[in-house]
Design goal:
CATH class of chain A: Alpha Beta
CATH topology of the largest domain in chain C: ABC transporter involved in vitamin B12 uptake, BtuC
Largest sheet of chain C: 2 strands, antiparallel
Number of helices of chain C: 21
Largest sheet of chain A: 6 strands, mixed
Number of domains of chain A: 1
CATH architecture of chain A: 3-Layer(aba) Sandwich
CATH topology of chain A: Rossmann fold
Oligomer: heterotrimer
Structural class of chain C: mainly alpha
Number of strands of chain A: 9
CATH superfamily of chain A: P-loop containing nucleotide triphosphate hydrolases
Strand order of the largest sheet of chain A: 5-6-7-3-8-9
Strand content of chain C: under 5%
Structural class of chain A: alpha/beta
Chains: A alpha/beta (about 260), B mainly alpha (about 425), C mainly alpha (about 475)
Number of helices of chain A: 11
Radius of gyration of chain A: 19 Å
Shape of chain A: globular
Distance between the termini of chain A: 26 Å
Order of helices and strands of chain A: HEEEHEEHHHHEHEHEEHHH
CATH class of the largest domain in chain C: Mainly Alpha
CATH superfamily of the largest domain in chain C: ABC transporter involved in vitamin B12 uptake, BtuC
Helix content of chain A: 25-40%
Strand content of chain A: 15-25%
Largest interface: B-C, 64 and 61 residues
Number of domains of chain C: 2
Chain lengths: ~260, ~425, ~475
């Protein structure tokens, strides 16, 4: 898994992360992360609070600066492959009081395709509506977003990413605080995406549903504890390593390093 | 330039208003309410104008009362519009203070015939005129403004001293403050009232806009220097005082350079405080931009030095490889840093007598060797540790160990030994030096 | 008292003046009005984006930061033998120093731990201080009169010349066009900066573009509104517009209209009362519009919000009452409700005491609710002093109880909530439950049950506990 890939192989790997380290404000968040994912899988990123799960996604998407490391999306850096990547941020990341309706938010997923300065035409609105139908939100298209329930807001975000028709989807805790209907809708969408050969990476925090949702896992606690097929890595031992036993010495060293060195390569 | 008694009084007035403002300003800046200071100082205008129009003079308690009322109203309205109208807080502040300022402006213009008050005086004060309006205290003629400002300063100081604990906790965490009995809301409104009163006391000398400079700039500067509240307050007072003195001196001196006599002291006090702020921002002792770059350079240099020592040691281990030499190319390959860093490190190592030149090649001296050994020891212990506890594959150990070796002190080394159960070889099979 | 009234009266404009201004007979008045309206328009548009970006007060710091630029430009122009009051020259100076101020705000927030509010306060006050100091020097200059520079602080529309109006109009048009072209880009930046970044939009450059527009509005507004109050042009119309709509595009348009209207009426008023500072009047007009919007705004105004919550509360209480009566009868005898055949007069009623003990409502409120229900012909008071359903009331009560229990059941089976908690939750959610959802629940839970049957409650009712 960690061998050297030739160019042809690399371009078939949806996400390849090599030696990724992220630290902000004296605080190490991710240390020497190394993994790659297989196409057409639903991959869960699990770990305790503060393990850097969201940061991992954000670092891949270039939203937080990385201290070092290399990230390739189908063999190229993220900037060149943006159209292949869909992102579902955490629900709390935006102000839901914003004066737009659900359809407007979903349309935002298409802004990149529409291009600079051009208005959102009927054609794109129809595409957005189609994405809303897929998550069962077509009836709410013209609701102001603050009037939607938490689960409905989450589905709007999901629809926005779907509208983009990407190859890889990154979802940051999509199951948090949602109702049963939304959870079901998301799971259906995940199956759908998988059957179309898309790759989905999901930050997740409830362990009960892990086996049911994910083909593969990235078990994370500042460093990678285990990666691989769920049935192989979702073991008591790995869980204990991820959630339990902190390696204080390692943490101390990482902290000292980021505090003193502060090297941004 | 002649320094006269008048100038003394001007400086004293400036210092007193700067001190009064800075005392409260600390809590405004800490609570991220800086713009509230701006809002209140603009918004007291109608309070002042009303007091003027009613009492017909500046010399009255009405003025303070009017200003305090409007100051509180600003805070209350901002809060109400924010909560009831669901308008974002800074926007509701903007709505309230511009409206009140506009009302005040119109009142002043309309009432200008009735009282001697012009908007210019309110906005940027008339500190030069302060010494002319005196009252006799203990047979000494003291400017009225000085008496007023002294009172306000004492009031603010008492407030800060008596409620230090409450202010601290409500600045840090308003919700916690309320649960432990220090009502954050009350603290907020008392603070706002005092800000309004201080603004009024200062407006004659420095004007209502430059009051903001005194409220915010010295505390912000102090925050760049220290993270401790008590120290921050003391430093802010020092900076406030310095700005007032430098401001007046600057007002008298600076224009001389371009051939003019003097300029507004109030404006120059703000300029002086700004200058102190930006000097601190760049050259400050802890967070300054310059010091940070210097620190960064030293750290890089130390790491580069250590890397070169490690490199030399490892080359020494591989006795059969003679064609490998330490030079800038190899250095770049190993560390990723450029030539500049390489030569700086080499020169400083030579000066430290850690390396010497032998047959055109670099060689470790005894001192250098001792240091290199300790480094390599840390490095390889880390590799052993990471291999054991993280199950990192062999080809992955070097990367992390390479970073940790630079921050490993003897205490950490001992712990490493303990955890790795005293290995003699690293996972690659290389000896761990004693 | 009479003297004061006389004084006020004497300050009122002559009737001829009034007509002259209102009929736009004066060329200069027309000029000023058009200029200020366009300014309000541009301010309203860019202000909306700044409000949504939560950077409303950024413009305040920038406008104060223009003062040194004006003063320095004046000095340079006088030193070169020119007319110190050449407007484009002064405004270029203002523009440059405004941008410098904005750059310093960014520098402070990027390189230190000071937050944006402190950075704004520092730049605002220090730049203003620099400006005041330079003005202090200018006043002592022998050449060129500094009088008139003050109008940049408080604003003075009367001094506007034709070329000034063209300058304002041209810049305002550019701002409006740019905002319309970049509407999509600005809206995604304001709503979700991170997402915009992942989509490849250059967020930093868009931010800078937005800031440049703010500086531009500030600069062209300096002359008429003045640097202290120009921020109002960007904050108040935008904040007012939010009360009227939930759509961003409409909000931009409404803000533009409010801005233009403030400009229009402000300019007319200040033409009538020439002594008053124009900026202050424009601001007061927009503040007036703001307070009207705050109370009567169609979508978020206080009145509509209180009316909506009052209506909801009324609906909820009504449903509580009908459900209480229904469940009371059910407790008494389950079969009595199941039959459609019986006439309503034969159905048992419920006593006031029972209802009073069923929920925590005061007797006064309960009586009021009952009176309302009686007047709406849902409930009547029988000869036995008990409360009975009318036929309509029974149908309505059945529908409510049905929704309630469907929802409870749904929550119990799907959301794994404790039954004790469900009742309260259901009270809240049921009232916003649409028909389609009820249909779906029905299909989900009770496909085989006929419509007329009252579903059994999934938890024991009050009396059986």
């Amino acid at each position: 898994m960690n061998g050297i890939h030739n160019v042809e192989n690399v371009s078939k790997i949806p996400v390849l992360v090599h030696d990724l380290t992220v630290a902000y404000q004296h605080k190490p968040v991710l240390w020497d992360i190394d993994f790659e994912v297989e196409e057409g899988q639903v991959i869960g990123i699990i770990g305790p609070n503060g393990a850097g799960k969201s940061t991992l996604i954000k670092a891949i998407l270039g939203l937080v600066p990385k201290t070092s490391g290399r990230i390739l999306i189908y063999g190229e850096i993220y900037k060149k492959q943006r159209s292949l990547v869909g992102y579902v941020p955490q629900r709390e990341s935006v102000d839901w009081d914003f004066p737009v309706n659900a359809l407007d938010v979903v349309s935002m997923g298409l802004y990149g395709k529409i291009g600079w300065c051009k208005p959102v035409t009927k054609h794109y609105k129809n595409l957005a509506m189609f994405a809303m139908e897929r998550v069962g939100m077509a009836d709410y298209a013209h609701r102001q977003i603050s009037q939607l329930s938490g689960g409905q807001q989450q589905r709007i975000f999901l629809a926005r990413a779907l509208a983009q028709d990407a190859q890889i989807y990154f979802m940051d805790e999509p199951f948090v605080g949602v109702d049963a209907a939304t959870e079901k809708a998301i799971v259906t969408i995940l199956h759908d995406l998988k059957s179309k050969g898309k790759t989905v990476l999901i930050v997740h925090h409830t362990l009960q549903t892990v086996k049911q949702y994910f083909d593969s896992l990235i078990m994370l606690n500042m460093r990678i504890v285990a990666t691989g097929l769920t049935k192989n890595v979702f073991t008591q031992e790995n869980l204990h390593k991820t959630y339990g036993g902190r390696l204080t010495l390692l943490e101390e060293a990482v902290q000292a390093y980021t505090r003193e060195a502060r090297i941004h390569e | 330039m002649n320094w006269t008694d008048l100038d003394n009084w001007i400086v004293i007035t400036g210092i007193l208003s700067a001190l009064s403002c800075a005392l409260l300003g600390n809590f405004m800046v800490l609570r991220r309410l800086s713009m509230m200071g701006d809002a209140i100082s603009h918004a007291v205008l109608p309070g002042l104008a009303a007091a003027f129009l009613i009492s017909g003079s500046r010399d009255s308690i009405t003025m303070f009362f009017g200003a305090a009322v409007v100051g509180i109203l600003t805070a209350v309205f901002t809060d109400l519009i924010h909560r009831l109208g669901k308008v974002e807080e800074s926007a509701s502040m903007g709505v309230v203070f511009t409206t009140l300022f506009a009302v005040g402006l119109i009142m002043i213009v309309k009432g200008a015939d009735a009282v001697d008050l012009d908007p210019g005086c309110v906005l940027y004060g008339a500190i030069e005129l302060v010494p002319l309006d005196t009252k006799t205290v203990f047979n000494i003629p003291v400017p009225r403004a000085v008496i007023v400002l002294t009172t306000v300063f004492v009031l603010n100081a008492l407030f800060v001293i008596f409620f230090y604990k409450e202010l601290k906790i409500s600045s840090f965490d308003p919700e916690l403050a309320t649960t432990v009995g220090a009502n954050a809301l009350w603290m907020h409104f008392i603070l706002m009232t005092l800000v309004a009163v201080t603004t009024v006391a200062s407006f004659e000398s420095v004007g209502s806009i430059l009051v903001i400079a005194m409220l915010i700039v010295p505390p912000a500067t102090a925050w760049l220097i220290t993270d401790r509240l008590r120290t921050m307050i003391l430093i802010s007072l020092l900076i406030a005082e310095l700005s007032a003195v430098l401001g007046h001196v600057g007002a008298l001196k600076l224009p001389n350079f371009i051939g003019y006599e003097d300029t507004s002291t109030a404006g120059m006090i703000a300029v002086a405080s700004g200058a102190l702020f930006f000097i601190t921002l760049f050259f400050g002792p802890k967070h300054g931009i310059v010091i940070k770059s210097v620190e960064r350079f030293w750290t890089l240099l130390r790491i580069s030095r250590e890397d070169i020592l490690g490199l030399l040691y490892r080359l020494g281990e591989l006795k059969n490889v003679n064609d490998l030499q330490v030079n800038s190319d190899l250095f770049r390959k190993v560390t990723g840093y450029g030539k500049g860093m390489y030569f700086s490190a080499i020169i400083s190592l030579k000066l430290d007598k850690k390396i010497c030149v032998d047959n055109g090649n670099f060689k470790l001296t005894d001192r250098g060797k001792r240091m290199a050994k300790s480094l390599i020891r840390s490095h390889r212990l880390w590799e052993a540790y990471l291999h054991k506890y993280l199950n990192l594959p062999i080809d992955h150990l070097h990367f992390s160990a390479e970073r940790f070796e630079h921050v490993t002190d003897s205490k950490m080394q001992k712990q490493l030994l303990l955890k790795t159960e005293l290995p003699t070889q690293d996972p690659h099979g290389k000896d761990i030096p004693e | 008292m009479n003297k004061i009234l006389l004084n006020i009266y004497s300050q009122l404009p002559e009737r001829t003046d009034l007509m002259r201004v209102l009929l736009l007979k004066d060329y200069n008045t027309r000029l000023v009005i058009v200029g200020v309206m366009l300014l309000g328009l541009a301010g309203g548009i860019i202000g909306t984006f700044m409000l949504l970006r939560k950077r409303s007060l950024m413009g305040d710091a920038v406008s104060h930061a223009t003062l040194p630029g004006i003063a320095i430009a004046f000095m340079i122009m006088v030193a070169n033998g020119g007319d110190g009051k050449f407007l484009p020259g002064l405004l270029s100076g203002a523009f440059l120093s405004g941008i410098t101020g904005m750059g310093l705000i960014l520098l402070i927030t990027q390189t230190s731990h000071l937050k944006e509010d402190a950075a704004l306060g520092i730049v605002l006050s220090v730049f203003f201080g620099i400006g005041v100091s330079i003005l202090g020097i200018i006043q002592k200059m022998s050449k060129g009169s500094a009088a008139g520079l003050e109008s940049f602080i408080y604003g003075k529309t009367a001094s506007m010349l034709t070329r000034d109006a063209y300058l304002i109009a041209g810049t305002a048009m550019i701002i409006v066009v740019l905002c319309l072209f970049l509407f999509k880009e600005f809206s995604i930046l304001c709503f979700d900066q991170d997402y915009a970044g992942t989509q490849g939009w250059p967020t930093v450059r868009l931010d800078i573009a937005m800031m440049l527009l703010v500086v531009s509005v500030t600069v062209i507004g300096l002359q008429s509104v003045g640097l202290i109050l120009i921020i109002a042009i960007m904050v108040i119309p935008a904040a007012s517009a939010r009360f009227w709509t939930d759509s961003l595009f409409r909000m931009v348009i409404i803000a533009a209209v409010i801005g233009a209207a403030s400009g229009l009426f402000g300019a007319i008023l200040s033409a009538l009362f020439e002594k008053l500072p124009a900026g202050a009047i424009i601001v007061l007009v927009s503040s007036f519009i703001f307070s009207v919007s705050l109370f009567f705004g169609y979508s978020r105004g206080l009145c509509i919000r209180y009316f909506m919550s009052w209506k909801l509360e009324k609906k909820v209480s009504r449903q509580h009452l009908l459900r209480s009566i229904c469940e009371g009868i059910e407790n008494f005898d389950k079969n009595l409700l199941d039959t459609q055949l019986k006439k309503c007069s034969q159905r048992p009623g419920i006593t006031l005491d029972y209802l009073l003990s069923d929920r925590s409502w005061s007797k006064r409120k309960l009586l009021k609710l009952l009176a309302e229900a009686i007047s709406d012909d849902l409930v009547y008071r029988g000869a036995d002093d008990k409360y009975h359903f009318t036929e309509d009331g029974f149908v309505e009560a059945k529908r409510i109880v049905r929704n309630h229990r469907l929802w409870e059941t749904y929550l119990i089976f799907y959301a794994e909530l404790a039954p004790g908690k469900v009742d309260r939750d259901a009270d809240q959610i049921e009232h916003v439950l649409g028909h389609s959802m009820v249909d779906r629940l029905e299909r989900l839970l009770l496909s085989e049950q006929p419509d007329s049957v009252l579903l059994p409650s999934p938890h024991p009712l009050a009396d059986e506990k």
